[in-house]
Design brief:
Blueprint: E1 13-17, E2 21-26, E3 31-41, E4 50-52, E5 65-69, E6 73-75, E7 88-90, E8 96-105, E9 108-117, E10 122-129, H1 137-140, E11 150-158, E12 171-176, E13 179-184, E14 192-195, E15 198-204, E16 208-214, E17 219-225, E18 228-235, E19 243-253, H2 256-262, H3 276-293, H4 296-310, H5 312-327, H6 329-338, H7 343-357, H8 366-384, E20 406-408, E21 411-413, H9 415-430, H10 437-454, H11 459-482
Parallel strand pairs: 1-7
Antiparallel strand pairs: 1-2, 2-3, 3-4, 5-6, 5-11, 8-9, 9-10, 10-19, 11-18, 12-13, 12-15, 14-17, 15-16, 16-19, 17-18, 20-21
Length: about 475
Protein backbone atom coordinates (compact mmCIF):
# COMPACT_ATOMS: atom_id res chain seq x y z
CA UNK A 1 0.00 0.00 0.00
CA UNK A 2 1.29 3.48 -0.80
CA UNK A 3 1.90 5.71 2.19
CA UNK A 4 0.69 8.94 0.58
CA UNK A 5 -2.37 9.65 -1.58
CA UNK A 6 -2.03 10.97 -5.07
CA UNK A 7 -3.57 14.29 -4.08
CA UNK A 8 -1.74 16.60 -1.72
CA UNK A 9 -3.93 15.74 1.27
CA UNK A 10 -2.41 14.41 4.48
CA UNK A 11 -3.29 10.87 5.49
CA UNK A 12 -5.16 10.60 8.78
CA UNK A 13 -5.93 7.61 10.93
CA UNK A 14 -9.21 7.60 12.85
CA UNK A 15 -9.53 5.36 15.92
CA UNK A 16 -12.92 4.12 17.13
CA UNK A 17 -13.03 2.54 20.58
CA UNK A 18 -16.13 0.50 21.51
CA UNK A 19 -16.99 -2.05 24.16
CA UNK A 20 -16.09 -4.84 21.72
CA UNK A 21 -13.30 -3.65 19.43
CA UNK A 22 -10.77 -1.01 18.47
CA UNK A 23 -11.06 -0.02 14.82
CA UNK A 24 -8.67 2.16 12.85
CA UNK A 25 -9.74 3.84 9.60
CA UNK A 26 -7.32 5.34 7.11
CA UNK A 27 -8.34 8.30 5.00
CA UNK A 28 -6.08 6.86 2.29
CA UNK A 29 -8.62 4.88 0.31
CA UNK A 30 -11.20 5.11 3.10
CA UNK A 31 -10.23 1.63 4.32
CA UNK A 32 -10.33 -0.29 7.58
CA UNK A 33 -6.70 -0.48 8.62
CA UNK A 34 -7.09 -2.39 11.87
CA UNK A 35 -9.88 -4.17 13.74
CA UNK A 36 -8.90 -5.66 17.10
CA UNK A 37 -11.41 -7.66 19.14
CA UNK A 38 -11.15 -6.73 22.81
CA UNK A 39 -12.77 -9.92 24.14
CA UNK A 40 -10.52 -12.31 22.22
CA UNK A 41 -6.75 -12.77 22.35
CA UNK A 42 -4.46 -13.88 19.56
CA UNK A 43 -3.15 -16.81 21.64
CA UNK A 44 -3.79 -18.34 25.04
CA UNK A 45 -0.71 -16.67 26.53
CA UNK A 46 -1.51 -14.29 29.43
CA UNK A 47 0.27 -11.40 27.71
CA UNK A 48 -1.25 -12.08 24.28
CA UNK A 49 -2.54 -8.97 22.45
CA UNK A 50 -6.14 -8.64 21.27
CA UNK A 51 -7.02 -10.63 18.15
CA UNK A 52 -6.47 -8.66 14.91
CA UNK A 53 -8.94 -9.42 12.10
CA UNK A 54 -7.32 -7.20 9.45
CA UNK A 55 -4.17 -8.80 8.05
CA UNK A 56 -3.43 -7.32 4.58
CA UNK A 57 -0.94 -8.99 2.29
CA UNK A 58 1.85 -7.19 0.46
CA UNK A 59 -0.17 -7.02 -2.76
CA UNK A 60 -3.62 -6.74 -1.22
CA UNK A 61 -5.71 -3.70 -0.57
CA UNK A 62 -7.13 -3.01 2.85
CA UNK A 63 -10.81 -3.99 3.17
CA UNK A 64 -13.75 -1.67 2.44
CA UNK A 65 -12.46 -0.41 -0.88
CA UNK A 66 -14.77 0.83 -3.60
CA UNK A 67 -14.58 0.49 -7.38
CA UNK A 68 -16.44 1.74 -10.43
CA UNK A 69 -16.16 -0.95 -13.10
CA UNK A 70 -16.76 -0.66 -16.83
CA UNK A 71 -14.46 -0.95 -19.82
CA UNK A 72 -11.89 0.42 -17.34
CA UNK A 73 -11.81 0.37 -13.54
CA UNK A 74 -11.58 3.24 -11.07
CA UNK A 75 -10.45 2.23 -7.59
CA UNK A 76 -10.28 4.38 -4.49
CA UNK A 77 -7.12 2.58 -3.32
CA UNK A 78 -5.08 5.78 -3.69
CA UNK A 79 -7.94 8.24 -3.30
CA UNK A 80 -7.54 10.95 -0.68
CA UNK A 81 -10.62 11.01 1.53
CA UNK A 82 -11.43 13.97 3.71
CA UNK A 83 -13.38 13.92 6.98
CA UNK A 84 -14.41 16.26 9.78
CA UNK A 85 -14.49 13.45 12.35
CA UNK A 86 -12.11 13.64 15.32
CA UNK A 87 -9.13 11.33 15.36
CA UNK A 88 -10.61 9.26 18.20
CA UNK A 89 -14.16 8.27 19.09
CA UNK A 90 -15.16 6.35 22.23
CA UNK A 91 -18.52 4.55 22.26
CA UNK A 92 -20.17 2.47 24.96
CA UNK A 93 -23.49 0.66 25.18
CA UNK A 94 -26.05 1.69 22.58
CA UNK A 95 -24.20 4.88 21.69
CA UNK A 96 -23.68 5.45 17.95
CA UNK A 97 -21.33 7.65 15.95
CA UNK A 98 -21.12 8.39 12.23
CA UNK A 99 -17.93 8.92 10.27
CA UNK A 100 -18.24 10.50 6.81
CA UNK A 101 -15.38 10.06 4.33
CA UNK A 102 -15.47 12.20 1.16
CA UNK A 103 -13.53 12.10 -2.09
CA UNK A 104 -14.20 12.75 -5.78
CA UNK A 105 -14.27 10.73 -9.00
CA UNK A 106 -13.69 12.87 -12.09
CA UNK A 107 -14.95 15.83 -10.11
CA UNK A 108 -18.05 13.96 -8.87
CA UNK A 109 -18.53 13.40 -5.11
CA UNK A 110 -18.22 9.94 -3.57
CA UNK A 111 -19.04 9.59 0.13
CA UNK A 112 -18.74 6.68 2.57
CA UNK A 113 -20.97 6.96 5.63
CA UNK A 114 -19.96 4.62 8.47
CA UNK A 115 -22.07 4.12 11.61
CA UNK A 116 -20.46 2.47 14.66
CA UNK A 117 -22.32 1.17 17.72
CA UNK A 118 -20.73 0.66 21.12
CA UNK A 119 -22.12 -2.81 21.81
CA UNK A 120 -22.36 -4.37 18.34
CA UNK A 121 -19.96 -6.04 15.91
CA UNK A 122 -22.06 -4.72 13.02
CA UNK A 123 -20.98 -1.57 11.15
CA UNK A 124 -23.47 0.19 8.92
CA UNK A 125 -21.96 1.43 5.66
CA UNK A 126 -23.66 3.59 3.04
CA UNK A 127 -21.93 4.66 -0.16
CA UNK A 128 -23.16 7.59 -2.22
CA UNK A 129 -21.60 6.97 -5.63
CA UNK A 130 -21.57 9.50 -8.47
CA UNK A 131 -24.11 9.39 -11.29
CA UNK A 132 -23.23 8.97 -14.93
CA UNK A 133 -23.03 12.69 -15.66
CA UNK A 134 -19.42 13.77 -15.92
CA UNK A 135 -17.89 10.32 -15.51
CA UNK A 136 -15.43 9.10 -18.15
CA UNK A 137 -17.23 7.02 -20.78
CA UNK A 138 -14.92 4.06 -20.27
CA UNK A 139 -16.27 3.68 -16.70
CA UNK A 140 -19.82 3.43 -18.08
CA UNK A 141 -19.13 1.23 -21.10
CA UNK A 142 -19.65 -2.55 -20.73
CA UNK A 143 -16.69 -4.44 -19.34
CA UNK A 144 -14.79 -6.94 -21.52
CA UNK A 145 -16.12 -10.48 -21.69
CA UNK A 146 -15.98 -12.26 -18.37
CA UNK A 147 -15.40 -9.08 -16.38
CA UNK A 148 -18.07 -7.73 -14.01
CA UNK A 149 -19.52 -4.25 -14.54
CA UNK A 150 -21.11 -1.90 -12.06
CA UNK A 151 -20.05 -0.79 -8.59
CA UNK A 152 -18.08 -2.99 -6.23
CA UNK A 153 -17.30 -3.01 -2.54
CA UNK A 154 -13.91 -4.69 -2.17
CA UNK A 155 -13.29 -6.86 0.90
CA UNK A 156 -9.72 -8.20 1.20
CA UNK A 157 -8.09 -10.60 3.63
CA UNK A 158 -4.83 -12.52 3.90
CA UNK A 159 -5.53 -16.24 4.13
CA UNK A 160 -3.35 -19.28 4.63
CA UNK A 161 -2.94 -21.08 1.30
CA UNK A 162 -2.05 -24.34 3.04
CA UNK A 163 -4.66 -27.06 3.00
CA UNK A 164 -6.58 -27.18 6.25
CA UNK A 165 -6.66 -30.34 8.34
CA UNK A 166 -9.17 -31.74 10.78
CA UNK A 167 -12.22 -30.32 9.06
CA UNK A 168 -11.22 -26.72 9.90
CA UNK A 169 -12.29 -24.32 7.14
CA UNK A 170 -10.52 -21.11 6.22
CA UNK A 171 -11.34 -19.23 3.07
CA UNK A 172 -13.88 -17.16 1.20
CA UNK A 173 -17.51 -17.74 2.09
CA UNK A 174 -20.81 -16.40 0.82
CA UNK A 175 -24.49 -16.96 1.44
CA UNK A 176 -25.76 -16.61 -2.09
CA UNK A 177 -28.96 -17.87 -3.66
CA UNK A 178 -30.02 -19.28 -0.28
CA UNK A 179 -26.94 -21.53 -0.03
CA UNK A 180 -23.66 -21.33 1.83
CA UNK A 181 -20.76 -21.42 -0.64
CA UNK A 182 -17.32 -21.96 0.89
CA UNK A 183 -14.15 -21.74 -1.18
CA UNK A 184 -10.95 -22.83 0.61
CA UNK A 185 -8.06 -20.40 0.26
CA UNK A 186 -5.94 -23.15 -1.31
CA UNK A 187 -8.37 -23.36 -4.25
CA UNK A 188 -8.54 -19.64 -5.06
CA UNK A 189 -5.88 -19.64 -7.77
CA UNK A 190 -7.66 -17.72 -10.53
CA UNK A 191 -10.54 -15.22 -10.81
CA UNK A 192 -13.96 -16.72 -10.22
CA UNK A 193 -17.47 -15.24 -10.38
CA UNK A 194 -20.45 -16.39 -8.30
CA UNK A 195 -23.91 -15.45 -9.57
CA UNK A 196 -27.11 -15.19 -7.56
CA UNK A 197 -28.81 -13.01 -4.94
CA UNK A 198 -26.08 -12.13 -2.44
CA UNK A 199 -27.09 -12.16 1.23
CA UNK A 200 -23.51 -11.77 2.46
CA UNK A 201 -19.96 -12.48 1.35
CA UNK A 202 -16.57 -12.40 3.03
CA UNK A 203 -14.18 -14.67 4.89
CA UNK A 204 -14.38 -17.11 7.74
CA UNK A 205 -12.11 -19.38 9.69
CA UNK A 206 -12.84 -21.80 12.49
CA UNK A 207 -14.06 -19.15 14.92
CA UNK A 208 -14.37 -15.73 13.24
CA UNK A 209 -16.23 -14.09 10.37
CA UNK A 210 -15.63 -10.86 8.47
CA UNK A 211 -18.34 -10.30 5.89
CA UNK A 212 -20.39 -7.79 3.91
CA UNK A 213 -24.17 -7.91 3.55
CA UNK A 214 -25.28 -5.70 0.62
CA UNK A 215 -28.78 -4.31 0.20
CA UNK A 216 -28.71 -5.38 -3.45
CA UNK A 217 -26.18 -7.48 -5.36
CA UNK A 218 -26.30 -10.46 -7.69
CA UNK A 219 -22.62 -11.08 -8.32
CA UNK A 220 -19.49 -11.86 -6.33
CA UNK A 221 -16.03 -11.78 -7.90
CA UNK A 222 -13.24 -13.69 -6.14
CA UNK A 223 -9.73 -12.58 -7.04
CA UNK A 224 -6.35 -13.87 -5.78
CA UNK A 225 -4.03 -11.03 -4.78
CA UNK A 226 -0.65 -12.39 -3.76
CA UNK A 227 -1.01 -13.89 -0.29
CA UNK A 228 -4.49 -12.40 0.04
CA UNK A 229 -7.90 -12.87 -1.55
CA UNK A 230 -10.22 -10.10 -2.71
CA UNK A 231 -13.98 -10.52 -2.64
CA UNK A 232 -15.78 -7.94 -4.74
CA UNK A 233 -19.50 -7.53 -4.09
CA UNK A 234 -20.83 -6.19 -7.42
CA UNK A 235 -23.98 -4.09 -7.79
CA UNK A 236 -25.21 -3.20 -11.27
CA UNK A 237 -25.67 0.49 -12.01
CA UNK A 238 -29.31 1.56 -12.20
CA UNK A 239 -29.90 4.59 -14.44
CA UNK A 240 -27.74 7.69 -14.65
CA UNK A 241 -28.61 9.29 -11.29
CA UNK A 242 -26.29 9.16 -8.26
CA UNK A 243 -26.35 5.75 -6.65
CA UNK A 244 -26.99 5.02 -2.98
CA UNK A 245 -25.73 1.64 -1.74
CA UNK A 246 -26.14 0.20 1.75
CA UNK A 247 -24.13 -2.55 3.45
CA UNK A 248 -23.94 -4.20 6.85
CA UNK A 249 -20.38 -5.14 7.81
CA UNK A 250 -19.78 -7.85 10.39
CA UNK A 251 -16.37 -8.42 11.96
CA UNK A 252 -16.56 -10.68 14.96
CA UNK A 253 -16.88 -14.14 16.49
CA UNK A 254 -18.99 -16.95 15.09
CA UNK A 255 -20.99 -17.17 18.30
CA UNK A 256 -24.59 -18.19 17.74
CA UNK A 257 -26.25 -15.49 19.87
CA UNK A 258 -24.07 -12.75 18.36
CA UNK A 259 -24.69 -13.92 14.79
CA UNK A 260 -28.43 -14.16 15.43
CA UNK A 261 -28.47 -10.61 16.79
CA UNK A 262 -26.49 -9.35 13.78
CA UNK A 263 -29.19 -10.57 11.37
CA UNK A 264 -28.63 -10.84 7.59
CA UNK A 265 -28.36 -14.64 7.94
CA UNK A 266 -24.80 -14.29 9.27
CA UNK A 267 -25.61 -17.30 11.46
CA UNK A 268 -25.51 -19.45 8.33
CA UNK A 269 -21.72 -19.19 8.51
CA UNK A 270 -21.98 -21.83 11.25
CA UNK A 271 -21.77 -24.72 8.83
CA UNK A 272 -22.82 -27.58 11.09
CA UNK A 273 -23.41 -30.16 8.38
CA UNK A 274 -26.40 -32.44 7.85
CA UNK A 275 -27.31 -32.43 11.51
CA UNK A 276 -27.11 -28.64 11.85
CA UNK A 277 -30.53 -28.16 13.53
CA UNK A 278 -29.58 -30.69 16.19
CA UNK A 279 -26.19 -29.01 16.68
CA UNK A 280 -27.85 -25.61 17.09
CA UNK A 281 -30.26 -26.98 19.68
CA UNK A 282 -27.40 -28.54 21.64
CA UNK A 283 -25.41 -25.30 21.44
CA UNK A 284 -28.31 -23.43 22.99
CA UNK A 285 -28.48 -25.99 25.81
CA UNK A 286 -24.70 -25.64 26.31
CA UNK A 287 -25.02 -21.86 26.59
CA UNK A 288 -27.94 -22.19 29.02
CA UNK A 289 -25.91 -24.54 31.23
CA UNK A 290 -22.98 -22.12 31.18
CA UNK A 291 -25.10 -19.44 32.83
CA UNK A 292 -25.22 -21.72 35.87
CA UNK A 293 -21.78 -23.37 35.92
CA UNK A 294 -19.47 -20.79 34.36
CA UNK A 295 -17.21 -23.62 33.14
CA UNK A 296 -17.57 -25.04 29.65
CA UNK A 297 -15.85 -28.28 30.60
CA UNK A 298 -18.57 -28.91 33.18
CA UNK A 299 -21.17 -27.83 30.61
CA UNK A 300 -19.93 -30.52 28.22
CA UNK A 301 -20.30 -33.14 30.95
CA UNK A 302 -23.80 -31.89 31.82
CA UNK A 303 -24.84 -31.85 28.16
CA UNK A 304 -23.53 -35.38 27.62
CA UNK A 305 -25.41 -36.55 30.72
CA UNK A 306 -28.66 -34.96 29.49
CA UNK A 307 -28.29 -36.70 26.11
CA UNK A 308 -27.67 -40.06 27.79
CA UNK A 309 -30.73 -39.61 30.02
CA UNK A 310 -32.89 -38.68 27.02
CA UNK A 311 -31.85 -41.85 25.20
CA UNK A 312 -31.95 -44.14 28.24
CA UNK A 313 -35.06 -46.09 27.07
CA UNK A 314 -33.47 -46.83 23.69
CA UNK A 315 -30.11 -47.66 25.25
CA UNK A 316 -31.74 -50.04 27.74
CA UNK A 317 -33.61 -51.81 24.96
CA UNK A 318 -30.39 -52.12 22.95
CA UNK A 319 -28.46 -53.66 25.86
CA UNK A 320 -31.29 -56.06 26.64
CA UNK A 321 -31.31 -57.21 23.03
CA UNK A 322 -27.55 -57.69 23.20
CA UNK A 323 -27.97 -59.81 26.32
CA UNK A 324 -30.51 -62.03 24.55
CA UNK A 325 -28.11 -62.42 21.65
CA UNK A 326 -25.36 -63.36 24.11
CA UNK A 327 -27.49 -66.24 25.41
CA UNK A 328 -27.72 -67.66 21.90
CA UNK A 329 -23.97 -67.52 21.23
CA UNK A 330 -23.26 -71.19 22.18
CA UNK A 331 -25.98 -72.50 19.88
CA UNK A 332 -24.89 -70.15 17.08
CA UNK A 333 -21.32 -71.40 17.41
CA UNK A 334 -22.54 -74.99 17.05
CA UNK A 335 -24.58 -74.10 13.94
CA UNK A 336 -21.63 -72.33 12.33
CA UNK A 337 -19.43 -75.33 12.95
CA UNK A 338 -22.06 -77.81 11.74
CA UNK A 339 -22.88 -75.95 8.52
CA UNK A 340 -19.51 -74.30 7.82
CA UNK A 341 -19.50 -75.82 4.32
CA UNK A 342 -23.06 -74.75 3.53
CA UNK A 343 -23.44 -70.99 4.17
CA UNK A 344 -27.00 -70.90 2.84
CA UNK A 345 -28.20 -73.62 5.20
CA UNK A 346 -26.24 -72.07 8.08
CA UNK A 347 -28.00 -68.72 7.61
CA UNK A 348 -31.37 -70.48 7.42
CA UNK A 349 -30.74 -72.36 10.67
CA UNK A 350 -29.55 -69.21 12.46
CA UNK A 351 -32.68 -67.31 11.39
CA UNK A 352 -34.81 -70.20 12.65
CA UNK A 353 -32.93 -70.00 15.96
CA UNK A 354 -33.82 -66.30 16.22
CA UNK A 355 -37.47 -67.08 15.44
CA UNK A 356 -37.79 -69.80 18.07
CA UNK A 357 -36.32 -67.61 20.80
CA UNK A 358 -38.13 -64.47 19.57
CA UNK A 359 -34.90 -62.53 19.24
CA UNK A 360 -34.47 -59.70 16.73
CA UNK A 361 -30.83 -59.71 15.50
CA UNK A 362 -31.15 -56.00 14.73
CA UNK A 363 -32.66 -55.19 18.10
CA UNK A 364 -29.34 -54.01 19.49
CA UNK A 365 -28.49 -51.93 16.44
CA UNK A 366 -31.67 -50.02 15.63
CA UNK A 367 -31.83 -48.03 18.92
CA UNK A 368 -28.17 -47.08 18.50
CA UNK A 369 -28.70 -46.01 14.87
CA UNK A 370 -31.51 -43.69 16.00
CA UNK A 371 -29.01 -41.94 18.29
CA UNK A 372 -26.39 -41.36 15.59
CA UNK A 373 -27.79 -37.96 14.43
CA UNK A 374 -27.61 -36.64 18.00
CA UNK A 375 -24.09 -37.96 18.51
CA UNK A 376 -22.88 -36.38 15.27
CA UNK A 377 -24.77 -33.17 16.04
CA UNK A 378 -23.13 -32.92 19.45
CA UNK A 379 -19.71 -33.72 17.98
CA UNK A 380 -20.11 -31.00 15.33
CA UNK A 381 -21.40 -28.49 17.86
CA UNK A 382 -18.38 -28.98 20.12
CA UNK A 383 -16.03 -28.85 17.13
CA UNK A 384 -17.39 -25.50 15.97
CA UNK A 385 -18.34 -23.52 19.07
CA UNK A 386 -16.13 -20.52 19.75
CA UNK A 387 -17.00 -20.71 23.44
CA UNK A 388 -14.38 -23.44 23.85
CA UNK A 389 -11.61 -21.25 22.37
CA UNK A 390 -9.11 -20.53 25.17
CA UNK A 391 -11.70 -21.72 27.73
CA UNK A 392 -10.06 -23.43 30.74
CA UNK A 393 -11.38 -26.53 32.50
CA UNK A 394 -9.42 -27.75 35.52
CA UNK A 395 -5.82 -28.54 36.45
CA UNK A 396 -3.62 -28.84 33.33
CA UNK A 397 -6.41 -28.18 30.80
CA UNK A 398 -6.20 -24.48 29.98
CA UNK A 399 -7.81 -24.48 26.52
CA UNK A 400 -10.76 -26.73 25.63
CA UNK A 401 -10.24 -26.00 21.93
CA UNK A 402 -6.68 -27.40 21.93
CA UNK A 403 -5.37 -30.95 22.55
CA UNK A 404 -4.76 -31.59 26.26
CA UNK A 405 -1.25 -32.39 27.48
CA UNK A 406 0.01 -32.92 31.02
CA UNK A 407 3.75 -32.09 31.30
CA UNK A 408 5.53 -35.10 32.82
CA UNK A 409 9.34 -35.26 32.81
CA UNK A 410 9.51 -32.84 29.90
CA UNK A 411 6.89 -34.66 27.81
CA UNK A 412 3.30 -33.69 27.13
CA UNK A 413 1.20 -36.74 28.05
CA UNK A 414 -2.40 -36.88 26.70
CA UNK A 415 -3.89 -38.19 29.95
CA UNK A 416 -7.56 -37.83 29.01
CA UNK A 417 -6.94 -39.48 25.66
CA UNK A 418 -5.28 -42.47 27.35
CA UNK A 419 -8.22 -42.72 29.77
CA UNK A 420 -10.56 -42.60 26.79
CA UNK A 421 -8.78 -45.58 25.22
CA UNK A 422 -8.94 -47.51 28.50
CA UNK A 423 -12.65 -46.76 28.83
CA UNK A 424 -13.27 -48.09 25.33
CA UNK A 425 -11.33 -51.25 26.19
CA UNK A 426 -13.40 -51.75 29.37
CA UNK A 427 -16.62 -51.09 27.50
CA UNK A 428 -15.63 -53.66 24.89
CA UNK A 429 -14.84 -56.25 27.56
CA UNK A 430 -18.30 -55.75 29.09
CA UNK A 431 -20.12 -56.13 25.78
CA UNK A 432 -21.19 -59.53 24.45
CA UNK A 433 -18.53 -60.84 22.04
CA UNK A 434 -19.27 -60.67 18.35
CA UNK A 435 -20.16 -63.99 16.79
CA UNK A 436 -17.83 -63.53 13.83
CA UNK A 437 -14.16 -64.22 14.77
CA UNK A 438 -12.93 -61.71 12.20
CA UNK A 439 -15.18 -59.05 13.69
CA UNK A 440 -13.86 -59.89 17.16
CA UNK A 441 -10.29 -59.27 16.00
CA UNK A 442 -11.24 -55.96 14.39
CA UNK A 443 -12.97 -54.79 17.57
CA UNK A 444 -9.84 -55.55 19.59
CA UNK A 445 -8.00 -52.77 17.75
CA UNK A 446 -10.76 -50.13 18.04
CA UNK A 447 -9.56 -48.69 21.39
CA UNK A 448 -6.07 -48.23 19.93
CA UNK A 449 -7.45 -46.62 16.76
CA UNK A 450 -9.62 -44.16 18.70
CA UNK A 451 -6.80 -43.31 21.10
CA UNK A 452 -4.55 -42.46 18.16
CA UNK A 453 -7.30 -40.38 16.52
CA UNK A 454 -8.07 -38.36 19.65
CA UNK A 455 -4.45 -37.43 20.41
CA UNK A 456 -4.82 -34.38 18.17
CA UNK A 457 -8.47 -33.63 18.98
CA UNK A 458 -9.52 -30.64 21.13
CA UNK A 459 -9.79 -31.34 24.86
CA UNK A 460 -13.50 -30.46 24.80
CA UNK A 461 -14.22 -33.28 22.38
CA UNK A 462 -12.11 -35.71 24.41
CA UNK A 463 -14.04 -34.80 27.57
CA UNK A 464 -17.31 -35.39 25.72
CA UNK A 465 -16.25 -38.80 24.37
CA UNK A 466 -14.70 -39.94 27.66
CA UNK A 467 -17.80 -38.87 29.60
CA UNK A 468 -20.01 -40.62 27.08
CA UNK A 469 -17.97 -43.84 27.45
CA UNK A 470 -18.07 -43.77 31.25
CA UNK A 471 -21.84 -43.22 31.28
CA UNK A 472 -22.28 -46.04 28.77
CA UNK A 473 -20.22 -48.36 30.97
CA UNK A 474 -22.44 -47.49 33.94
CA UNK A 475 -25.54 -48.18 31.87
CA UNK A 476 -24.13 -51.47 30.64
CA UNK A 477 -23.35 -52.58 34.17
CA UNK A 478 -26.84 -51.69 35.35
CA UNK A 479 -28.62 -53.46 32.49
CA UNK A 480 -26.39 -56.48 31.94
CA UNK A 481 -25.36 -57.19 35.52
CA UNK A 482 -28.13 -55.96 37.79
CA UNK A 483 -31.39 -56.64 35.95
CA UNK A 484 -32.91 -60.13 36.31
CA UNK A 485 -31.76 -62.55 33.62
Amino acid sequence: MPKEPAANVPVRDLTIQTDLYTAVLSTLGGRIQSFQLKKFRATNAPDSPPLELIVPGEEAQLPMGFELRGASVWSDAKAAYDTTSPEELVLTGDAKATVDLRTTVAGQPLVKHLVFTGNSYVLELAVDAPGATGLPKELLAPAPDGQPSGMALVWSKTLSRERQAGGVFEGAAAFIGGKLVQTPASKIEKPENLDGPVTWAGYEDHYFLSAVAPDRSNLIALRPAGSAVETKVITARSGSDPQHLSYALFLGPKELSILDAAGHDFSRSLNLGWFGPISLLLLRVLNLSHRVTGNYGIDIIVLTLLVKVAFWPLTKKSFQSMREMQKLQPEMTKLREKYKDDPKQMNSEIMELYRRHKVNPLGGCVPMVLQIPVFFGLYQALSSTIQLRHAPFFLWIHDLSAPERLPILGYGVPVLTILLGLSMFLQQRMSPPAGDPTQQKVMMFMPLVFTYMFIGFPAGLTIYWLTNNLLTIAQQYFVLRRLPT
